[in-house]
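DM from R.C. (forwarded with permission)

"hey, sorry to bug you on a friday — could you get me a structure for this? deadline for the figure draft is monday and I only need the backbone to look sensible"
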Amino acid sequence: MIFRLLRRVGTVPALKQMIGLMAMIKRIHIAVISLCALLFVIIGLAQEREVVVVAELGPQIGERVPDFELRDQFGQIQTLDSIMGPNGAMLLFHRSADW
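My reply, with the result:
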């Protein structure tokens, strides 16, 4: 019914043309996004990555850490002896956004 009314007015060809343009814009949009993604991949592959040797980063599992004094999240000073439990201790250093 609506198409009959639009056909009388003469807007059906205009609607078909608009739908065709929208499909073409969508294809162009997808092509641009694909090219951007390809560019990011190429840039990522082109950069040389530095090899990280984990053994050189700090104390390893099972190795004794040096004595330290650090403030915890509550402002209290913690030492290795103060956090050591009967089974040892596990240290987790978390970098926050305000460092």
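R.C.: lifesaver. Residues 55-83 form one domain.
me: no worries. The radius of gyration is 32 Å.
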